[in-house]
Amino acid sequence: MAADPFELQRRTLPVGLTVSTGWDRDEAYTFVEELFAKHQNEIYAYLLRMLRDPDLAADLAQDAFVKAYRAYDSLQKPENARAWLYQIAHRVALDHLRRGRIVRFVPLVGEARNTAPSAEHLVMDANLSGELQRALERIPERQRSALLLAELHDLSGLELAAALGVSHVAARALLTRARESLRQALAAERKAELDFEAAAEARAAEKHDQDPGRRWGRRS
Amino acid sequence: MGSPIVSPRIRREPFAADHERARELAAQRVDGPVAPDDAGWLNDHLAWCGPCRAVAAEYDEQRLALRALRHDPPTPPRDLWARTAAAIEAEPARRRPTAAGRRRTRLVGFAPLVAALVVAVALGGSFLDGVLPPLGSTTKGDDPEATPIDLVAGEIQVLSHADDGSLELLSRNLDQLCPVAAESCGLSNVLDVTHVASIGSNGELDAIVSPDRGQLVVVESGKGSSSIFVVPLKKHQALNPTPGSGTSTASHQPASDDPGTTATVDPADTASPDTTDEPGSDDPGESPDASDAPPSDTPPSDAAGSPPASSEPTDDPGASDEPVTTPDPTDEPEPEPTPKATEPAPTVEVTPGPDGAIEIARNVVLVGSAAGYSPDGSRFAFSARPAKGSAGPDVFVWRVGDRLAKAVTTDHGSQLAGWIGDRLLVSRVVDGKPRTSILDLDDGSERHVGDGAMWRPTVGPGRELATWWDGTVKQADDGITWVPDRGRLVLANWPDGSDSQVLAEGAVTDWDVAWDETGTKLAVWVSRDDPGKPGKLSLYTVDEATGRPDLARPPLDGAPAYAGFALEPGRLAWSSPAAGGDTSVVVLGWSGNNFGKVTLPTENGATVLR
After folding, report:
1. Alpha carbon of B289: minimum distance to chain A alpha carbons (Å)
2. Dihedral sign, Cα of residue B532, residue B533, residue B538, residue B539
3. Helix/strand/coil for B408
4. Which of A189, B128, B203, B349 could pair covalently with B220 via S-S, beta carbons 3.0-4.6 A apart?
């Protein structure tokens, strides 16, 4: 037992990151260049699906690759590069969402149900549309991330755990909760849609009843 | 008082828990095969349970809908590499040298606080040499003034007494620390001080915050008796300093140059620093405990719909020694829809106190350290006995909106072990052996768990592991409560107890165990002394592959700590004895393999919100 309770042991991060002293700019550049060529599409897609903003997704994808450049020598095993990169992108996305939490729940223009979407969201909506998109928006970010990574980005269980920075047990539990959350969110979306339509019909009927021409017997 | 009696309850089939289990297994099955026994049980259940079958079908449809989106992936902008390459070119040619041998000592200055509190912050040094710059760091060459780096941490909240005895909430944003090599990084050192409630009498405090951080349960103990209050926390109380109090300043005020205490650096491997956002204690969707909860379209428990308490607080002197709760043994808890919400808990409607505080129990003595909110925040459970010692402990549950806590056991020999979903784990002595049951609050049914001795289990995330006392128990000096005797505190597979690891053994009197929500850290507090005395707190890292804690290499090993700690992703906070009889609040923060320490000495004592 250590005498000082705060004394820490040198250890290796379970996700494959480790302490290293060697860092070479050219090697780092080449490494990230290859990483970019191989994974840019999926990393951008993941960030876009998380954030629903093409410009922001591009900015954060750039940020993720710059961070990979800075820390390339912390990757122990090349075969873990994909999960490692997803972990960086995941943190970049969550950090952004946390910073934006104060305004996150403010409805964006054009995002309300049955209103015209903004131009920037049309791109997103083309890929992730309707109630599924809105339902994903309603579930907690980490759950959303877990679902997207597992289902759309096909990360294996261990890759998912590494990307999320949790144990595989916790990752699977998170995924289970995410599925239930999404199920409930979809149900809520469907109910809200029905309520909206019912309200619209009620308004239409009311308007029809209040039509002066109808009330007073409009004559042709 | 007779020997403890397990309350007779009639098993009613099917348990609500069966449906819950079926749906959980159905969700798990989507991601891979479940255990053969579970698969068989699930198939049997789905064969007759239409609603669960429908849910399982929804999971399958959901997966198909998500996977269908794979076929049309979005395309990144064509200039993405050009932008990325330009950003990389703009990076410094070499990274900041590591901080080995460059650890500095400095005192971070403070704006004056109320007389109740004098705080110094010590940012302890990195525990590792040769630390990498964090993934999220923004290195700027060798600028003397570095940019703070982000930690996977948030706000530390501490409850303390003001001089007038009222309660104050002290908070500190700890989502940033100075990077390893920083001379300074402009960190704010100010604790926001906010009046919480005028319910204090300068007794000892325990404080448990609700998952949505909208409420605070305060246990105030003194003179052999405790009172339990629920205090609604308004957003401004949790987040903003008291206007005009002179006790706070804007965040990220440059640190003073005062010499003094230690410096710590704690590179984070999270993303780029942001110096503008507050931690989201007002954001239920973001609070650590609630972030994984399902979304809510189910309203939280409605105060108006709650059953009335069977007894009310009284001013009758003749009744003043009786515990004020609702210990009605015959009143089976009414089934209620279980909120599965991340919505803020509704405001307590019964607010006799000027600050909205209500007293849900008094003239009781809390037993054990397992009091806590249900995961959805709709209920708070604790075990307590009458202060005058006329009976042993029972488990009480307070529902949001209720006037008083209500007894859910009546045998005067039950201790709360914790929550497992929306059910309670309750430990009792049965035939001289410690046993644990799962108590369903919806229908009052109970079923034993585990085959052997099991006392006060705490079930981990994923419900695959748990800790409990594996051994015998004995009657405490008061003759009416049970405490561990011979045995050991183990961590083992839940609930069969296989593959156990020993966390503590010998003369253990109390303990508390918690996993962080990511399941990557496990904190264990063990006391071998009387209640109120400090125990030892350890932190373990959970192995990715096995899900088991690495007991051989704890990042924190047996630090002196009073009961009650807060473990959240990236940080562990506890109250520690300090010189002169004062209490310090200590926070250990980490990001990746780097750790930092913050010490907050206080004068009037402080209790970490857990």
Report:
1. 11
2. positive
3. coil
4. B203
Nearest to A45 among B74, B297, B544 (CB): B74
B191-205, B233-247, B470-484 — which is least confidently predicted?
B233-247
Omega of the bond prior to B14 within 30 degrees of 0, cis?
yes
Residue A22's identity, in one-letter code, is: G
Q: Do B544 and A14 touch (CB under 8 A)?
A: yes
A156/B contact by beta carbon, under 8 A: no
Q: What Cα–Cα distance (Å) separates residue B547 from each residue in A14, A175, B497?
A: 11, 16, 15
Of B418, B403, B413, B399, the closest CA to residue B345 belongs to B399
The sign of the torsion formed by the CA atoms of B374, B408, B219, B608 equals negative
Report how far residue B402's alpha carbon sits from residue B389's, in angstroms, rounded to the nearest whole number.
26
Distance from C-alpha of B317 to C-alpha of B79, rounded to nearest angstrom: 79
- Least CB–CB distance from A67: residue in B77, B271, B520: B271
Over residues B280-302, the mean pLDDT reads: 30
pLDDT digits (tens, 9 = 90+) for B214-245: 787 887 776 677 788 888 776 544 333 222 22
Does residue A14 sit at the B interface (CB-CB below 8 Å)? yes
Distance, CA of B80 to CA of A40 (rounded, Å): 9
Q: Write out pLDDT tens, residues B203-219.
A: 667 778 787 777 878 87
Within 10 angstroms of residue B550's Cβ, the number of other Cβ atoms is 16
Distance CA B388, CA B365 (A): 9
The pair of three-digit structure tokens given for residue B540, joined into one six-digit string: 């373990």
Task: Name the residue of chain B whose CA is nearest to A186's CA.
Answer: B62
Q: Give yes or no for A56 touching B (CB within 8 A).
A: no
Dihedral sign (CA B560, B119, B595, B173) = positive
User: Inter-chain contact A101–B283, Cβ cutoff 8 Å?
Assistant: yes
Is A165 an interface residue toward B (CB < 8 Å)? Answer: yes
> Which one of A65, A180, A186 has the shortest CB-CB distance to B84?
A65
Is B271 close to A96, i.e. CB distance below 8 A?
yes
Q: How far is A209 from chain B (nearest CA, A)?
A: 33
The three-class DSSP label of residue A213 is helix
What is the separation, in whole angstroms, between the first and last Cα of chain A? 97
CB pairs under 8 A between A and B: 264
